[in-house]
Amino acid sequence: MSKRQWNSGLRRWGMVLGLVGALGLLSGCGRKDGVDAGPRGTAENPWVFGFSQCTLNEPWRVEMNRQVQLAAEKYPEVKLLMANAEDKSERQVNDVENFLAQGVDLIIISPKEAAPLTDIVAKAYKQGTPVVVLDRKVLGEDYSCFIGANNQKIGYQAGLKVKALLAEGGKVVELTGNMSSTPGEERQRGFREAIAEELASGKIEILHDADCDWKEERARSEMEAALAANERIDLVYGHNDPMAHGAWLAASQQDRAEGIHFVGIDGLPNEGVSYVREGILTATFEYPTGGAEAIDAGLALMKGEPVEKVITLGTRIYTKENVSAGGEAID
Q: Which helix H or strand E contains 166, and what residues bound it?
C-alpha cells in the first residue's frame, strides 16, 4: 500500500467513524423510555461507551479512532458512540456533557488540552461514570484510568538519539506539539533533560523552537522561518512525524535537506516508519494509540474487575539500521 493510499484510507475511516458517532448520538443509548431491557452488558442490552476524540485532523488520531472502533466491534456487549471535537476544547466539553445527558455507562476521552477538560472529566467521574483518559492527561486524578505511553521517556530517548547524531555538537530546531497539552510539555522536558549538559556548554544550541500544535503545515512554515534566519541547521526534532516531515519539505524546497537530520515521534507504519525507509526521517519513535487497551480497560471496569490507575504503553525506535527488522524496543 502506498503512503497516498494509506492517508486516503485514514481519511475514509475518519469520515465513516464520524458518521457512526453522529448516528449513535441521534439514536441514544439503546434504552427505551427508561424501560429496563434486562441485564446490562449483553448483546441485547449492551453497555454504552462514549468516546470523545479531540480531533481527526492528524493521521495518528484517525488511526486511534480506527483501533477503538475495531476493538469495540469484537464485543457484542459494547455499543460505541463517538464524537469529534474538531480541535476545540470547548466543543469537547460539550461532547462529554452530551454523553452524560444520554446516560452512557462509560466515557473514553483523549483530551485536546489538560486544564480545559479537567473539570468535565472530574464531574463525570464524581457522579459515578467511569472515565478512561487516553493519550493526553488531565489535571488531578479524578478519573478511573489513564492509558498512554511515557511521553517524557520518549522525549528523553529522542534527546539521547540527538546527542549521538550530534556527537561533535550542532544546531537544532525544535518543533513542538501543543504546549498546553501534556504530551507537548513532556516531550520537550524529556528531550531537554537528555541534552542538558550539551545545552549548558553550548555544544548543542537550539536555534529555533515553536509551538506548531502538531500540524505539518505550521511546522513547514516555522522551518521556512528558521532556514531564512540561519545558515546552518544540523537537526530538526519534531514532536510528531507530521511536523518533522513538514520541516523536511521546507528544507527540500530550498535544497537544504541533505545534511540535516530529522527526528520525529508517532511511528505509524505508512507515515513515520515509511519516512525512515525513504530516508526522509533519521529516526522515529513509536507512540501507540492505546485504542484497543481503552476498550479492554472499559470492559474490565464495567465488570468490576481491577484496573490499574495508570497503564503505560511501550515504545520502539525506528532507524535505517533496524526498520526492516521492525525497529527496536526501548525498555
A: none
Q: At 49, phi and psi to the nearest 5? A: -105, 130
132 burial type by CB count under 10 A (0-12 exposed, 13-18 middle, 19+ buried): buried
Which of the listed CATH numbers 3.90.180.10, 3.40.50.2300, 3.40.50.150, 3.30.1490.20 matches domain 151-288+319-330?
Answer: 3.40.50.2300
Give 12's pLDDT tier (boundaries 50, 70, 90). low
Answer yes or no: is pLDDT of 307 > 90: yes
> In this structure, are residues 290 and 64 in contact, taking their beta carbons and an 8 Å threshold?
yes
**Domain 151-288+319-330 in the same topology as domain 3-143:** yes
Residue 192's H or E segment, with its range, is helix 182-194
The answer on pLDDT for 244 being more than 90 is yes
What per-residue confidence (pLDDT) applies to 28? 43
Confidence of residue 22 (pLDDT cuts 50, 70, 90): very low
pLDDT at 285 over 80: yes
Average pLDDT, the chain: 91
Task: Give the three-state DSSP class for 328.
Answer: strand
DSSP 216-268: HHHHHHHHHHHHHH-S---EEEESSHHHHHHHHHHHHHTT--TT-EEEEEE--
Residue 118: CB partners within 8 Å, gap ≥ 6? 138, 139, 140, 142
* Distance in angstroms (rounded) separating the CA atoms of residues 96 and 83: 9
Residues forming a β-bridge with 238: 175
- CATH topology for 3-143 is Rossmann fold (3.40.50)
Q: Are 49 and 83 in contact (CB under 8 A)?
A: no
Characterize the bridge pairing of strands 315-319 and 283-286: antiparallel
Residues near 311 by beta carbon (within 8 Å), at least 6 away in sequence: 145, 146, 147, 148, 290, 293, 297
**pLDDT greater than 80 at residue 30:** no
Q: What is the DSSP letter of 325?
A: G
